[in-house]
Amino acid sequence: MKTNSHDENGLDTLINLRAVARHIGRSVRQVWREIDRGKLPKPVPGRPARLFESDVVKYQERLRQERDGKPNDGREKEL
Q1: Bridge partners for 50 per DSSP
Q2: Would 70 disulfide with which of 2, 15, 29, 65, CB 3.0-4.6 Å?
Q3: How many CA atoms are closer than 13 Å to the CA of 52, on its beta-carbon side?
Q4: Residue 39 domain-assigned?
């Protein structure tokens, strides 16, 4: 997956759920679970199911913040 989620025309790239799963190190079934839980957005209409690459990047950033003990707004947790 590219670090810049926009193509040469400035449009957000769509990626299928198999590529999402590979990128985040989970199975396609686990990706669907994250979608059902609202942690990842619903796929765009059509087949195969696809997500915007920028949404996957945001998901990973939220995971990193949770791991580091930071609230979703990026501020440090108060002790």
Answers
A1: 16, 44
A2: 65
A3: 13
A4: yes
Transcribe 17-56 into DSSP letters. HHHHHHHHT--HHHHHHHHHTTSSPPPBSSSS-EEEHHHH
What is the per-residue DSSP string for 9-23? TSPBPEEEHHHHHHH
The residue written with tokens 């997500």 in the block is 51
Number of domains in the chain: 1
Confidence of residue 78 (pLDDT cuts 50, 70, 90): very low
Question: Tokens representing 25?
Answer: 């190190």
Q: Does residue 62 sit within a domain?
A: yes
Q: Is residue 61 part of a domain?
A: yes
Dist. CA 63–CA 38, nearest whole Å: 13
46 in a structural domain: yes
30 is in which domain, residue-wise?
A: 14-67
